[in-house]
From TrEMBL:
Species whose genome carries this gene: Haloarcula onubensis
Catalytic activity: L-histidyl-[protein] + phosphoenolpyruvate = N(pros)-phospho-L-histidyl-[protein] + pyruvate
Recorded GO MF terms: phosphoenolpyruvate-protein phosphotransferase activity
Record keywords, A-Z: Cytoplasm, Kinase, Magnesium, Metal-binding, Phosphotransferase system, Sugar transport, Transferase, Transport
The name this protein goes by in its record: Phosphoenolpyruvate-protein phosphotransferase
Matching PANTHER family: PHOSPHOENOLPYRUVATE-PROTEIN PHOSPHOTRANSFERASE
PROSITE patterns, A to Z: PEP_ENZYMES_2
Cofactor(s) listed: Mg(2+)
Source species taxonomy: Archaea, Methanobacteriati, Methanobacteriota, Stenosarchaea group, Halobacteria
Annotated localization: Cytoplasm
């Protein structure tokens, strides 16, 4: 019998073959007509909150150790929801009206969940966070048993309406072959956890997923965004063969001898060693925001110096590209009192803040970077985010000069690192030649570049079809950036998600990229793809891709 294919959104470029295990935690709510002891219900609610807080703190610590600090931070948000006075007051008011605590919790959370569901992008995903907290409280109040997703049979493929962060953090990639959900998008917490765990996953498959029965054999294709139900022999073999390439520790070159650096995107110190273990030649994007998050005040210069030096020492023979503080947009830091903007992605973010309201923070960070450049083993490169004008770039370079003068006055050893610019806006593409005259390298951030070129919010699933870097406009923007940079003796890297997709590696090689930086999980696959690419042929295909008019024609050209 032929297999059936369900289509959704791929979360991880991995495939897995396994047997369906449906996860459908049921909570039985009490009868609304039963008489209650209001004081006893208040006490039960208070006890449930305390137990839930203890569980969340424990899960946060376990997730930070197993997955990472960024992913673990979601549990901090859950604790905040748990302690939200508006929700607690609503629960207590319902109990005062004679409702059992479980029904009071269900009602109090329900309105907030519905409100977030009506929003778009990441705000809509807050609904899942609230569900997670609500269901945790309901389980404790109703005596329900928690399903242990860490103890599933080997080869299980978990299917669910949705998976919360608490659910996904339990999944063990050593035994679980993948998961698929009815709802969700690429930026959902379940999808983010899946990528961190290198777990095959497809989300947003729709109601048809409910027709797939327990025990059915399926293939989760996180690259194509498909679930193959009852696959045939060829599909089983393909899924097994696509489990991922072996780690390639040495640097790679194309079949006709063109070298290409394959580096890792890193968001916290705990990711450095795993990136090296996956064969990363260096770090193509070291996000420094981790130093500023989850605290009440900004880090001191010495703390930043130590963090950057550790990264350089992890890659003593490689290059570490550090992005200066990039906040605003979807990244908020409470103690900086960021403004509420109608469209924060087009507002005060990145270098715009570093050069104005956060100039002292910027100068402190630059001093730390210059000190680390002198003392660390690897080669430090520093790039500025969201630069749109030559004036911004020149002001950033002046800030580096000022930081060097500060250190000179203090008698502190320093070294001026190589400097670069993130190419994330159409303006940066058009001004690439001028930027390249003033810095050593450009790094293309395809996530934001695609968003701005296509005028499509990358968090809005309704325009998700436009947020594809293989649209001709984006391909042309990449090609133009590379040409202008090379004409002015600057090298060019790419650190957006496009860089980690082996299916477009040949295109990127052909466009002339010198470096590709990605999530560590895809490094082995991209290294293999580079080695299988002939540069001369790739250039011809890339030239053709830059001349066509539609996305389908781009795909036809690069296949």
């Amino acid at each position: 019998m032929a297999s059936r294919t369900l289509t959704g959104t791929g979360a991880t470029p991995r495939s897995g073959l396994g047997t369906v295990v449906w996860y459908d935690p049921e909570i039985t709510l009490p009868d609304a007509s039963q008489a209650v002891d209001e004081d006893a219900e208040m006490d039960r609610f208070a006890d449930a909150v305390e137990t839930a807080r203890a569980e969340l703190e424990s899960e946060r610590d376990a997730t930070a150790e197993r997955v990472g600090e960024d992913e673990a931070a979601i549990f901090d948000a859950h604790i905040q929801f748990l302690e939200d006075p508006a929700i607690a007051d609503a629960v207590e008011a319902s109990i005062d009206d004679g409702k059992p605590a479980a029904l009071a919790v269900d009602d109090a959370f329900g309105g907030h969940i519905e409100q977030f569901e009506g929003m778009e992008g990441r705000m809509a995903e807050r609904a899942d966070d609230l569900r997670d907290v609500r269901d945790r409280l309901l389980r404790l109040l109703t005596g329900g048993e928690r399903v242990n997703l860490a103890d599933l049979p080997e080869g299980s493929v978990v299917l669910a309406e949705r998976l919360t962060p608490s659910d996904t953090a339990q999944l063990d990639p050593e035994t679980v072959a993948g998961f698929a959900t009815v709802t969700g998008g690429r930026t959902s917490h379940a999808a983010i956890f899946a990528r961190s765990l290198a777990l095959p996953a497809v989300v947003g498959l729709g109601e048809d997923l409910n027709d797939v029965a327990d025990g059915t054999e399926v293939v989760v294709d996180g690259d194509a965004g498909e679930l193959l139900v009852e696959p045939d022999d060829a599909e089983r073999e393909a899924a097994t063969a696509a489990e991922g390439a072996d780690v390639v520790e040495e640097s790679v070159e194309t079949s006709d001898g063109r070298e290409l650096e394959v580096a890792a995107n890193v968001g916290r110190p705990e990711e450095l060693e795993p990136a090296a273990a996956r064969g990363a030649d260096g770090v193509g994007l070291y996000r420094t925001e981790f130093l500023f998050l989850d605290r009440q005040s900004p880090p001191e210069e010495d703390e930043q110096y130590e963090a950057i030096r550790d990264a350089l020492d992890t890659f003593p023979d490689g290059r570490v590209v550090v992005r200066t503080l990039d906040i605003g947009g979807d990244k908020q830091i409470p103690y900086l009192d960021l403004p509420e903007e109608e469209n924060p992605f087009l507002g005060e973010r990145g270098i715009r803040r570093s050069l104005d309201p956060d100039s002292e923070l910027f100068r402190t960070q630059l001093r730390a970077l210059l000190r680390a450049a002198a003392d660390g083993a690897g080669a430090l490169n520093v790039m500025f985010p969201l630069v749109a004008t030559v004036e911004e770039l020149e002001a950033s370079i002046d800030a580096v000069d000022d930081a060097a003068a500060d250190l000179e006055d203090r008698g502190v050893d320093y070294e001026r690192p190589s400097l670069g610019v993130m190419v994330e806006t159409p303006s940066a593409v058009f001004m690439a030649d001028e930027f390249a005259k003033r810095v050593d390298f450009l790094s293309i951030g395809t996530n934001d570049l695609t968003q701005y070129v296509m005028a499509a919010d990358r968090e809005n699933e309704r325009v998700g079809h436009l947020h594809d870097p293989t649209h001709p406009a984006v391909v042309r923007a990449i090609g133009q950036t590379v040409e202008q940079a090379h004409a002015n003796d600057a090298w060019v890297g790419m650190c957006g998600e496009m860089a980690g997709n082996p299916d477009v590696t040949e295109l990127l090689v052909g466009l002339g990229l010198d470096e590709l930086s990605m999530s560590a999980v895809t490094i082995p696959d991209v290294k293999v793809a580079v080695g299988e690419t002939e540069y001369s042929a790739a250039r011809e295909r890339a030239d053709s891709a830059r001349r066509v008019a539609t996305r389908s024609e781009v795909h036809d050209t690069i296949q």
